[in-house]
Amino acid sequence: MKNIIIIGVSKAGRLHLQSYNKLKEKGEIFLVDNQKEDNDLKIYKTIEEVLNEKKLDSNDVVVDICTPKEVFYQIIDECINLNIKNILVEKPFILKKELLEKHKDLKIIMIQNYLYSKIVEDMKKYILENKLEVKAIYTNFSKNRIQESIKGRGMANGKVTRNVEIEMPHQIYIANYLAGDYKEDNLLLLEEKDLCYENIVLPKHGYGKIICKKDNIIVTHISDLTSNTVTRDVIVICSSNAIVKGEFLVYDKKFNLTKPGKMQVLKDGIKIFQKTYEKDDNIYECIKDAYKYFNSDNIDKKYEERLIKFGTEFSKYIEV
User: Fold this and answer.
1) Is 0.85 topped by the overall pTM?
2) Bridge-partner residues for 219, per DSSP?
3) Which burial class, exposed, middle or buried, applies to 88 when counting CB atoms under 10 A from its CB (0-12, 13-18, 19+)?
4) Distance of alpha carbon 145 from the chain centroid
5) What is the model's pLDDT at position 35?
6) How far, in Å, CA of 67 to CA of 76, rounded?
7) Nearest to residue 18, comparing CAs of 251, 201, 239, 273?
8) pLDDT number for residue 131
9) Which of 28, 67, 86, 163 lies at a 20 to 30 A Cα distance from 238?
């Protein structure tokens, strides 16, 4: 099994580390972060330092990038120069087709962990089994991130992360999956508002709204990073006056469950089905699937197709 090098030891990196530690079979795990030190963990400064000290074969390594997006491509270039072919990237990442054309043996995946959520899987299954036509999709991923944001969480090189780059990537790929096959995607509205706290202003960071149209499906995304209520909801409005709603599990900062997940189906406003979820380890399931792929000899186009579909839509929003 291939060895794992996690780049970045903040929240995302630690969540990934937890997931790798749950794998029954895995190579050694190494941590790289040139900005942080930890008395309890061995943290290397560079990927090359790990390779040299541990005498690792670059073909036998997976690099998992959990840094702010501003340095994604810099680290990917470093991996390519070191002949590392297996790369996992946190969101939001836009795949450049030229990269794959130039490096045909490169395996690269963006984390899309909510596609591995039991709630999303059950919502999709219900829609398909009941032959419902999707009419509209509404997502709301909101929370109070003020203190983390003013401390610079997820930011690098002095650049403020826009609202659409934080929770919205999850909302976008979830909606793409639930909408199914569609030919056209048109942006109708994009709004972002500043996060203002005391004398600090983070431009286009506090609140975001996207309305787009996928063929005849209207999709609305909301993300308020100043909300005192944690909300992670996906609502799919379907034919036959049916609504399929998913509410994701909520955890505190110590990863203790504070609110179970839920899937509901309403018909003409009346609840006809409900399922509760006390566990939904979608990050682990996502990483397990990616790690299995990296340890195989085959190139699976589904990962590339997911990235291209996401990137094609997301690039429209960051250009606005």
Assistant:
1) yes
2) 137, 212
3) buried
4) 17
5) 83
6) 12
7) 251
8) 96
9) 163
d(CA 122, CA 119): 5
168-217 pLDDT tens trace: 999 999 999 999 999 999 999 999 999 999 999 999 999 999 999 999 99
- When pLDDT is cut at 50, 70 and 90, the band that residue 283 belongs to is very high
The answer, yes or no, to whether the previous bond of 68 is cis (omega within 30 of 0) is no
C-alpha dihedral sign at 201, 205, 209, 210: positive
Identify the bridge partners of residue 211 per DSSP, sorted by sequence position. 189, 220
Rounded CA-CA distance 251/17 in Å is: 17
**DSSP one-letter code for 116:** G
Rounded Cα distance between 85 and 66, Å, is 17
| DSSP β-ladder status, 61-65 and 43-44 | unpaired
What is the predicted pLDDT for the residue at 95?
86
Q: Which two tokens stand for residue 16?
A: 């990934």
Spatial separation of the C-alpha atoms in residues 30 and 7, rounded to whole Å: 9
Q: Which residue type is seen at 38?
A: D
- pLDDT, residue 40, reads 82
The half-sphere exposure of 39 on its side-chain side, counting CA atoms within 13 A, is: 0
